[in-house]
Amino acid sequence: MIKKIIPMLLSLLASAQAFSFCGFYVAKADATLFNNKSEVILVRDGLKTVITMSNDFKGDVRDFAMVVPVPVVLKESDIRIANRSVFESLDAYSAPRLVEYYDENPCMEYKMKEEADYSMAFTTAPTSTMKSMNADFNMGVTIEAQYQIGEYDILLLSAKESTGLRDWLIMNGYKIPTTADEVLNPYIKSNMKFFVVKVNLGKLKAGNFDYLNPIQISFEHEKFMLPIRLGMANSTGSQDMIVYAFTRSGRVECTNYRTVKMPTDRKIPLFIKNEFGQFYKNVFERTWKNEGRNAVFLEYAWNVTPNWGMKCDPCVGPPPMHNELSQAGVWWLNEGSNVFFTRMHVRYEKSKFPSDLTFQVTPNNENYQARYVLTNPAWGEFDCEAGQNYLVELSERRKVEVDELFALSGKNSEKSYNYIREFDKHKKAQPKKNDIPALLWKWIKTHGPKGGAMLLLLALTIFILKRTAPAQKMAIAH
Amino acid sequence: MEQLTIRFKSFGQWLESDARHFQIIAQVIFLFYGILYLGWETYVINVFFAFAGALSIQGLFVALKLAPAHSLKSAFISSLGLSLLLKANAPILFFIAGAMAVGQKFAFRYNGKHLWNPANFSIVLLILISGNAWISPGQWGSGAILVLIISTAGMNVLSRVKRLDMALAFLLTYALAEYSRTILYLGWDHEVLFHKLSNGSVWLFALFMITDPMTSPNNRKLRILWTILIALASFYVINFHFLYAAPQFILFALTPFVPLIDKAFNGEKFFWQKQIHLIPSQHD
């Protein structure tokens, strides 16, 4: 047993591969914000789907390989090379954001300033590896099509059974795990084809590419899904995936896992300003755990039709323009229809996500964005009575902000204590006010209208039941 | 029919007298669970509009003496069903849904029975016509505890309305079909099957929607056959055409045939409230 394990371990270390949903990725040595992150753009209308797969790979291009199950044999015109900048701008545009507000000093004449602070919540994506391809062997594997597009050599394969496909791939230099045949089988049985990509070294050198471009495929089929199971065959940990979805009518949601919104419009302490990336990472991790690790998280959903209204509040980057949207695969821009943009963030692992993600397009056109609020305190003197009240409210609010920090991210900061008391020095000694109506109003505000409405519903239920109860008329059958 | 006024000795006795009480309790629990625990984006205003629509129309018919007062409970259940299932862009659509759900019970009748499950009717028509309504099959997620809660509540209600056979037939047929395809044919592992079968929407559909006693056949054998048909059709449309709202549409298409079936085949007629049979005295 040990004899078998050691060579396996060595080979694992040597290739250090983690099988992700659309290919092979090498874990980066330096810490990125989200490890093993892949990005996909999905455009869907009717039966047509356009998928663009990011390819933020750094490493030896000879080690790169991508294997993606697709429902049909793609024609050459269905495959194109996309521009990497599309992902960057979509990410910048829809990422969770930080907003900054400024309080006005009630003792002075100030106009309220509203400024947006643009903070990127994510940094770069992980790398992928490639393998060079040798000669073919046929093992129940049919090469349905073969193309050379951009810097890539592309094959469309159909297979009769999974061990044949696996052996074929290994023989041709794709280092896939030996257990992959278990996962390949369902795709073969579902009549799916395999989109296999490697880099054409000659084209790469000739074209002077610094990096590998994303690949965009389009096809018509009833299926609207992402085959993440294939990517989990050999990985032990969890992987992140960001999905940018575009439709004509409204939000895209997952049909076999819960879609949950990330917390939004929450006030957080000022000292988070320079640590927003790490803060959001903690928030995501905590929310993901709280929801049972098996949900899809919504981070942004907005109508981004070009030349139509506000697209964000505030805007983190310039909104997607005509050419960016068509780069992403949106094909109906000239038809005058709307474009709705959904950003979903999934962190999946094998035990919690046994099924591939399936999606549906809904007409849900509600705008939503994940947004966190910083409020800067007012400047100047607080000698007037309104100013003193403001100071009380300020320390109350700061207490709430610190509580929110803990509730959202699960982490406390040593700056919290001083942060709450920072403005106490301006306070003058005053008798405490026991303001009952204010306390009551505060209670209602903290418990929210939801709780109150729920109580009302319960009351209505009881009322209806009681109303139709006491003197019941029973039907008598003769 | 004569009407006797009966006073109940205890709250428990009153509760037991009508199976709808338990359905209401179950669905209210689900609604609270979904909104507070699962974090649904259900806007409370939508729930109120659904209730307003359904209860106002039903109340109108009660006031016109065209329906008994206790029928408000059915309207209540329809409103809860809409709150649980229907999603729409505007609150007014919920009012329309509630009104339509109740209205169709009076507008479309055959042989003394209404043709469609009220919530199902509104959901399907709004999705088809308004373009601003949808359902979220994934809103419950999957999991053992969820299934336990739903099935416990469901079994309770169903045993009272004598429709447990339908739920079991649906779940077994669906499970068998899924097992055959997912494990035997496609070769996925058991976790995939479990995930598919523990989907909350499937269980809710099986235990609370198709089993509506007023829109399911009275004859037991027919009922089970009917359910198997729905289960197989749903399985087919979901797995081969990837339309996850299939069960709703299939039910909508098939329930109008129930009164015809009831006319052709004998079966025990269903009443929400327990019947009292007067036996003529032998000493008359």
Query: If helices are DSSP runs of H or I spanning 4 or more residues, what is the number of helices of chain A?
Result: 11
Summed up, the helix count of chain B is 13
Classify the beta-strand content of chain B into a percent band.
5-15%
Distance between the termini of chain A: 80 Å
Secondary structure category of chain A: alpha+beta
- For the largest sheet of chain B, list the strands in their spatial order: 2-5
Task: Describe, in plain words, how this protein is organized in 3D.
The complex is a heterodimer of chains A (478) and B (284). In chain A, a hairpin with a 2-residue loop joins strand 1 and strand 2. By secondary structure, chain A is of the alpha+beta class. Chain A has helices spanning 2-15, 85-94, 162-171, 180-189, 201-207, 228-231, 276-290, 322-328, 385-409, 416-421, 436-467, and strands spanning 17-20, 23-26, 37-45, 48-53, 66-70, 79-81, 97-102, 114-117, 127-128, 141-149, 152-159, 193-199, 215-220, 225-226, 239-247, 252-254, 258-261, 266-267, 295-303, 340-348, 357-361, 368-369, 371-376, 471-477. Chain B has 284 residues and is mainly α. In chain B, a hairpin with a 2-residue loop joins strand 3 (109-110) and strand 4. Chain B is built from 13 helices and 6 strands. Chain B has helices at 11-16, 19-37, 44-63, 71-85, 91-107, 118-130, 144-161, 164-185, 190-197, 200-209, 220-241, 246-254, 258-264; strands at 3-7, 86-88, 109-110, 113-114, 133-135, 276-277. Chains A and B meet through helix 4, strand 17, helix 11 and strand 24 of A and strand 1, helix 2, helix 3, helix 4 and helix 9 of B. Strand 24 (471-477) of chain A pairs parallel with strand 6 (276-277) of chain B.
